[in-house]
Amino acid sequence: MTDTVITPRGKVLTKTERPRLHKVILVNDDYTPRAFVVTVLKAEFRMTEEQASRVMMTAHQRGVCVVAVFTRDVAEAKATRATDMARKEGYPLLFTTEPEE
Predict the structure, then answer these.
(1) What is the share, in percent, of the chain residues with pLDDT greater than 90?
(2) Each residue of 27-39: pLDDT tens digit?
(3) What is the pTM of this model?
(4) CATH number of residue 49's parent domain
(5) I want to staple 59 with a disulfide (CB 3.0 to 4.6 A). Which of 6, 48, 65, 87 is the partner?
């Protein structure tokens, strides 16, 4: 999105806004093994074992956890790929996205 601003001297300046960011959210379920969740987080979000374990445990304890924040297209692609990885293995693991406030 761009805004056009005219200065007092008559110069036209355009301001480009940064794209709105979206959160990738891990939704806990009672069926997907914890080790598999860690594997998905490491593979799709390039987390270390420790980071992935912390995110998995937060989602387990609170029901959901923000995994990362990206531009909309990247967030949706990563959430879809991560969810698809689980579906291929028969797990109901779910990743969603929502705009960051």
Answers:
(1) 79
(2) 999 999 999 999 9
(3) 0.82
(4) 3.30.1390.10
(5) 65
